[in-house]
Design a protein that fits this description.
The chain is an alpha/beta fold. It folds into two domains: 3-247, TIM Barrel (Alpha-Beta Barrel), CATH 3.20.20.70; 256-324, Non-ribosomal Peptide Synthetase Peptidyl Carrier Protein, Chain A. The protein is 44% helix and 14% strand. It has 14 helices and ten strands. The chain has helices at 25-33, 46-50, 54-58, 78-90, 105-108, 120-132, 153-162, 186-192, 210-220, 237-247, 256-274, 276-290, 298-306, 310-324, and strands at 3-4, 7-8, 14-16, 38-45, 69-74, 95-100, 138-143, 167-171, 201-204, 224-227. An eight-stranded parallel beta barrel has the order 3-4-5-6-7-8-9-10, surrounded by five helices. A two-stranded antiparallel ribbon has the order 1-2. Helix 9 crosses helix 10. The protein is globular. The chain starts with a strand and ends in a 5-residue tail after the last helix. The relative contact order is 0.11. The mean pLDDT is 94.
Length: 329
């Protein structure tokens, strides 16, 4: 049984990675429904929380059915991160996660996210300040290092554990790699198999099939895996991995109508949470993923992306149901 502090997550938990503009409540609903054991919110700016910025505070919204749920925060000022931790704790998450992994320029080049990997001492000081300011378990998501010459994750993991984090998720790339190339899990395995480590270690990067999840589980010994991009438009990845672990067999892919049902749920919840205009706009990035691999769907996808009202989207989806319901995927 894998535990983060007193939170039981099962024998080999599957985590939903925090993804900006993706892992919001509508998407998390579907991932939970299809087997995610622990989910994280989109990352939230510490400065935004302190300023009470609407976009940041809305991301604090969590729901009982999502538990256990972690809220992830990022920032470059230690005092701001400490204050943001107190604000985050008031929202009642089960876990507070620190983002030391985001590689995008506007975050990392300010010294936040993966940018802090250039200053491990500050990383440790910040983590200690956050841990000391809350009774909620604190976890960390990070990368192997800033670049090929600074992959100090084995040492950093020990230091973060020493100041009190309760679990560590490691993406198997450096900041310089962004999301390119293949994730290197060898150092993730070294962290997990370091006799000094006693907290759960979760691996992240390139897990896009049940077979790969089991292969990496067996090869590197991680306590669980965190899944990001492979879940976008495909929340079934979690239950497919669980099915494969249990039976050794690959679960049938969701049918067209199952994909359609998930898309409709996502759309409805997106509108409920964000309102008509933003809810419809932000669903546009998901259509191509939900219906990926379906022949002759391009025209329908283009129509969905251009639709501006709920009735338009609904009509296009209904037409697609009639046209593609018998498609075998």
């Amino acid at each position: 049984m894998v535990k983060i502090a007193d939170i039981s997550l099962g024998d080999f938990p599957l985590l939903l990675a925090p993804m900006e503009d993706v892992s919001d409540p509508p998407f998390r609903y579907l991932c939970k429904k299809h087997g995610a054991d622990l989910m994280y919110t989109e990352f939230i700016s510490s400065e935004g929380l302190i300023r009470d910025a609407a976009k940041s505070t809305q991301k604090l919204d969590i729901f009982e059915y999502e538990r256990p749920i972690g809220i992830q925060i990022f920032g470059y000022e230690i005092e701001s991160m400490r204050e943001a931790t107190e604000i985050t704790a008031a929202a009642g998450p089960d876990i507070i996660d620190i983002n030391y992994g985001c590689p995008v320029k506007k975050v990392a080049c300010k010294g936040a996210g993966a940018g802090i990997l250039q200053d491990p001492d500050k990383m440790v000081r910040m983590t200690r300040a956050i841990v000391d300011s809350t009774d909620i378990p604190v976890t960390v998501k990070t990368r192997l290092g800033w670049d090929e010459n600074s992959k100090h994750i084995v040492e950093i993991a020990e230091r973060l554990q020493d100041v009190g984090i309760k679990a560590l998720s490691i993406h198997g790339r450096t900041r310089k790699q962004m999301y390119k190339g293949q994730a290197d899990w060898t150092l993730i395995g070294e962290v997990k198999n370091n006799p000094r480590m006693h907290i759960p270690i979760f691996g992240n990067g390139d897990i896009d099939t049940p077979q790969k999840a089991v292969e990496y589980k067996n090869k590197y010994g991680v306590d669980g895996v965190m899944i990001g991009r492979a879940s976008i438009g495909y929340p079934w990845i979690f239950e497919e991995i669980k099915h494969y672990i249990k039976t050794g067999k690959v679960k049938d892919a969701p049918s067209f109508m199952e994909r359609m049902e998930a898309c409709r749920i996502h759309l409805d919840k997106s509108i409920q949470w964000k309102g008509d205009k933003l809810g419809i706009f932000e669903m546009r990035r998901h259509y191509s993923q939900y219906f990926k691999g379906i022949a002759h769907f391009k025209e329908t996808r283009s129509a969905l992306v251009q639709a501006g009202t709920y009735s338009e989207v609904s009509s296009i989806l209904e037409q697609a149901e009639n046209e593609f319901s018998q498609v075998v995927i």
